[in-house]
């Protein structure tokens, strides 16, 4: 409803003055009045100057119709329904911004890569494909583009240094392949009101011998999950029955694979240390050599997709899903499970996407106070027993603009103008308030978010904290994201259903990943950037070597540890 209102207000403002259809600073001013106001890091003069640049740069393309595509989330709905019409009114370039499922975006992109047919003029696809784009060289690298064919349509105020996610979209060659459009993290979510209630704290300490707080490790998370599951929380105004200490999902669906490749494995301790991703072994368990060429996935080739840390990760996920989660969770997908904590019966969730923040702060929901502040908070996710300092501990989705080489130059230039408009300093603060998916440091630090922070459950504190760098998307070790990603949900699904043990499922997964790597090596499709597989050898050779892969620990139950949320926030601010 809010999106329709703002779009209508802008349209009325444009029509009221009988303004030209495009390329007019008055249309830009009407947009600023109706939609932006002071929600920008630029003052009004700076906003008008930036939009005047877009007007001038777009003149050669006035009247052109372009098509772009993204997945369907709140941020992109705002772009499609509000910013695309505004861009058209201001520049004369007619933009159709399609919204489809994330899997469909990848499928369309893959089809364009394989066929060379120009299906879309630009894609917002996850930076998880950075290894794919860098190796196949079918996407324009933006570094060269901005210096060459895209120079005349590159905003002098773009300010790449202000983007917080460019390390995720840069290849090993140092070239930028994608421009971040939206980012959200997976974090630990918990009922702050329940955790701070004296009776609840006393009961927990009496049973477990330590303080209830944000779990630092999986042992503490498990204790908290056990404690709350089945607990009568009516004394706190919560449900008397149906309370659970964990929330997850387990349906055999593409989103099940994301659960694991999006950092569950690294949180457990699978892979090597490194930022933004582990090297030489990443959180997919894929090992690369010094030239960033994949050399293996199974332990026998130096990978860790089927090592002890990976098995531990899947085993714990299944155990907690069965013991401490609503029965229906096992049949849910990512999208179905995401809103469940806001319904009021979940005590904590280890892996919750901040993209659900906007829906979780809706007035009147069971997890909101009457004053508009949430009863919940978000914090860093706990880590597993195999995790060590320096490993990534969480995932950030970074939906990013990508220009394919198969798109004609003039169409790519027009689409690049739109991509820069929806990520510009003029509009980014307002867009960030709508979707809460931050891409610019300047927007994160904007005073309007300092004011709004108490109502967002720790989101602003997290994005302003030094901890943020340990959250990152899939890195460059993955040579073909579309082909490999589908293997994860199919094999993990076998473990979830009980058709295979976690070890059996992960053995099958790493073998299937290696079949893809071997095919890529034999085909030569990725040239000198493609896989060069290690010979198989006794797994013990790799287990005895430093770093990943790792052997099974005799005791996977470490001493539980928690931390006060308020003290954690203070440590970030200091």
Give the SSE layout.
Elements: H1 2-16, H2 25-36, H3 44-58, E1 65-71, H4 74-91, E2 94-100, H5 102-115, E3 122-126, H6 130-136, H7 142-147, E4 179-191, H8 192-195, H9 198-208, E5 214-215, H10 218-228, H11 254-268, E6 287-288, E7 294-296, H12 308-324, H13 334-337, E8 348-353, H14 357-360, E9 376-379, E10 396-402, H15 409-422, H16 425-435, H17 441-444, H18 447-452, H19 459-463, H20 481-497, H21 502-523, H22 539-544, E11 562-563, H23 565-573
Parallel strand pairs: 1-2, 1-3
Antiparallel strand pairs: 3-10, 4-8, 4-9, 4-10, 5-11, 6-7
Helix pairs in contact: 1-2, 1-4, 2-3, 4-16, 11-12, 11-20, 20-21
Describe what this molecule looks like in 3D.
The chain is α+β, with helices and mostly antiparallel strands. The protein has a domain at 2-177 and 396-467: D-Maltodextrin-Binding Protein, domain 2. It is built from 23 helices and eleven strands. Strands 1, 2, 3, 4, 8, 9 and 10 form a seven-stranded mixed beta sheet that branches. A two-stranded antiparallel sheet has the order 5-11. A two-stranded antiparallel ribbon has the order 6-7. Helix 4 (74-91) links the parallel strand 1 and strand 2 (94-100). It starts with a helix and ends with a helix.
């Amino acid at each position: 409803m809010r999106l329709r209102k703002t779009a209508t207000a802008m349209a009325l403002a444009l029509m009221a003055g009988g303004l030209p259809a495009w390329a007019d600073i008055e249309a830009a001013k009407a947009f600023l009045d109706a939609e932006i106001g002071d929600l920008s890091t630029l003052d009004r003069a700076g906003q008008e100057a930036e939009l005047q640049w877009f007007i001038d740069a777009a003149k050669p393309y006035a009247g052109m119709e372009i098509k772009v595509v993204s997945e369907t989330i709140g941020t992109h709905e705002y772009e499609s329904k509000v910013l695309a019409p505004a861009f058209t009114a201001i520049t004369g370039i007619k933009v159709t911004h399609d919204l489809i499922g994330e899997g469909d975006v990848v499928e369309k992109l893959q089809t364009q890569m394989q066929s060379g047919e120009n299906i879309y003029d630009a894609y917002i696809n996850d930076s998880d494909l950075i290894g794919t784009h860098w190796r196949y060289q079918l996407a324009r690298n933006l570094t060269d583009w901005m210096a060459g064919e895209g120079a005349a349509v590159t905003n002098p105020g773009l300010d790449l240094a202000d983007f917080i996610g460019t390390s995720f979209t840069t290849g090993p060659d140092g070239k930028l392949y994608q421009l971040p459009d939206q980012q959200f993290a997976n974090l630990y979510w918990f009922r702050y009101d329940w955790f701070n209630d004296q009776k609840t704290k006393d009961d927990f300490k009496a049973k477990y011998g330590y303080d209830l707080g944000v779990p630092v490790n999986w042992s503490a998370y498990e204790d908290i999950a056990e404690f709350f599951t089945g607990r009568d929380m009516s004394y706190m105004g919560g449900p008397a029955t149906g309370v659970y200490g964990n929330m997850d999902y387990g349906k055999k669906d593409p989103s099940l694979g994301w659960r694991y490749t999006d950092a569950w494995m690294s949180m457990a301790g699978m892979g090597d240390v490194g930022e933004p991703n582990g090297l030489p072994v990443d959180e997919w368990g894929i090992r690369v050599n010094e030239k960033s060429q994949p050399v293996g996935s199974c332990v026998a080739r130096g990978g860790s997709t089927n090592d002890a840390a990976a098995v531990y990760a899947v085993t714990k996920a299944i155990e907690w899903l069965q013991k401490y989660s609503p029965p229906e969770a096992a049949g849910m997908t990512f999208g179905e499970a995401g809103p469940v904590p806001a319904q009021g019966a979940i005590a904590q969730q280890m892996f919750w996407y901040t993209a659900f923040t906007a829906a979780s702060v809706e007035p009147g929901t069971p997890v909101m106070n009457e004053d508009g502040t949430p009863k919940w908070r978000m914090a860093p996710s706990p880590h597993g027993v195999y995790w060590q300092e320096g490993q990534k501990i969480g995932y950030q989705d970074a939906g990013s603009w990508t220009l394919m080489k198969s798109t004609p130059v003039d169409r790519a230039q027009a689409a690049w103008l739109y991509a820069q408009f929806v990520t510009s300093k003029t509009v980014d603060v307002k867009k960030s308030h709508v979707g809460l998916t931050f891409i610019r440091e300047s927007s994160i630090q904007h005073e309007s978010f300092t004011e709004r922070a108490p109502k967002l459950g720790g989101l602003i504190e997290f994005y302003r904290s030094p901890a943020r760098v340990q959250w990152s998307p899939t890195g460059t070790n993955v040579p073909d994201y579309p082909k490999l990603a589908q293997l994860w949900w199919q094999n993990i699904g076998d473990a979830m259903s009980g058709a295979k043990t976690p070890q059996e499922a992960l053995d099958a997964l790493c073998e299937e990943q290696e079949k893809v790597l071997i095919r890529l090596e034999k085909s030569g499709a990725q040239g000198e950037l493609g896989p060069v597989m290690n010979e198989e050898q006794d797994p013990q050779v790799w287990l005895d070597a430093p770093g990943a892969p790792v052997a099974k620990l005799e005791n996977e139950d470490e001493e539980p540890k928690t931390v006060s949320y308020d003290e954690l926030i203070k440590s970030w601010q200091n």
